[in-house]
Amino acid sequence: QTATEIWELVNTAPEAHNFHIHQTKFLVLPEGAPVGNAGAMMDNVTLPSGSAGCDGSVLRWRDGTCKVSPEYVSIPFSEIGDFVYHCHIGEHQDGGMMAHIRVIANP
Asked: Is the overall model pTM greater than 0.85, yes or no?
């Protein structure tokens, strides 16, 4: 059975990043979908850079100093296991912008 999650993707850095996830595709919700891609399943989306007040910290975003337009994605997880997600820029991956989520069966 598929479990669908809505993720809010926020780039608090002063440079653009992208978001990619392995083993599944996601739907970029219409208000943030790249031109021509609304309603299409994707495995990659660009996250625009934040405002001049952004320094990469969540704290500056939460206190309103860093103005960011989040992207919302709907991710259908139809298999259990580990799913890796990361930025496609190699040096960003090396700097820690890669992680995984573990999907487990509903007890």
From this structure: no
Cα–Cα dist 12/94, whole Å: 18
Entry field: residues in the chain: 107
Higher pLDDT, 1 or 66: 66
CB atoms within 10 A of CB 34: 13
Residue 92's φ and ψ, nearest 5 degrees, are -70, -40
Per-residue pLDDT tens over the stretch 27-62? 888 765 555 556 678 888 888 888 888 988 889 989
With 0-12 CB in 10 A as exposed, 13-18 as middle and 19+ as buried, what is 40?
exposed
Task: Let me know: does 101 contact 83? Beta carbons within 8 Å.
Answer: yes
With contact defined as beta carbons under 8 Å apart, do 54 and 14 qualify? Answer: yes
Neighbours of 65 (CB within 10 A): 16
Closest CA to 70 of 17, 20, 106, 25: 17
